[in-house]
Write a structure and sequence with these properties.
352 residues; TIM Barrel; 16 helices; 11 strands
Amino acid sequence: MTTQLLPGFTLGNHHIDVPLVLAPMAGITDLPFRKICKRFGVGLVVSEMIASRAVDMGRERTERMAELGDDEHPASIQIAGADPVFVAEAARWAVGHGADFVDINMGCPVKKICKQVAGSAMLRDEKLVARVLKAVVEAVNVPVTLKIRTGWDDTSKNVENIARIAEDCGIQMLTVHGRTRAQMFHGHASWEDIGLAKAAVSIPVIGNGDIIDATSAREMIRISGCDGVMVGRAVQGNPWVLGEVHAVLTGAPLPAAPTASERWLIVSEHLHHLAEHHGIRTAAKLARKHVIWYSKGLHGSAEFRQSFQTLTDWQQMLDVAAGYFLGLGGHVHQHILESVRHPSSPEAAHAV
């Protein structure tokens, strides 16, 4: 009999059985990426951050970013902005696009976001934080959640204050990335600071930052006492890390490392989803970064990366990627290669 490390938590009418959350990452966690990650036991997915002003402009790209899959629910759409009116309107728009929860970003450290006093820059103005949170909570009838950092810099950490403000404003779940804005993604995440937020409120607190495997997930939980774990950058090219963390959270045995064939099946499925969602032209551009990430640290990856980055033809990209990943197993599975070359074949749904 296995013992689940964390019991999960309830948001509105939904119970998140496995408190494993996929971090929203700009330009990465689109629908194709999230589809792959769901296979590894993620309990909650969050869309890429969508700027409230972009919602107001009605851009086609914004609509695509908000698209949720039928099997993703419950799912969250993340919004960002500093004007309570625009952010509240973006929240209503998110619910209209099927969001079960609306997540507000007050953690993004990117300069162009912070220049608009959005993202982590908002942490310097606690009154503004409260105004935005109240406006969104009052605007929608679904649970509103919040993602923050521990403060602007080491001299102005206010993670406990922001956590209390969030709970007072009706926020139902808080995610804390254990770095300040000044740290960007450098140095170490402070899991102790996540614990300060957890001790300050009664709502679920999700820990984020430096989760790279099962061991780090277990240690974060031990140090912070968090109610769940959010994994971000470690998933890029390695969704198998989610399977490790899922096993820790549920008390299941750790999964074995993927074989060459298993790795290729995930890579090829991801490529298929990219083409289906974005069209081949955009998929070819996106595939360069994703496929390179999938090859990181593997045998011959440097040579593969150099050749793959020069490719522009979609079919050639599929062939070269299949040859590389399946070749890691010592031989190329010809029948799978054939299904890549002939997408109309029955095997194609699994091969591309």
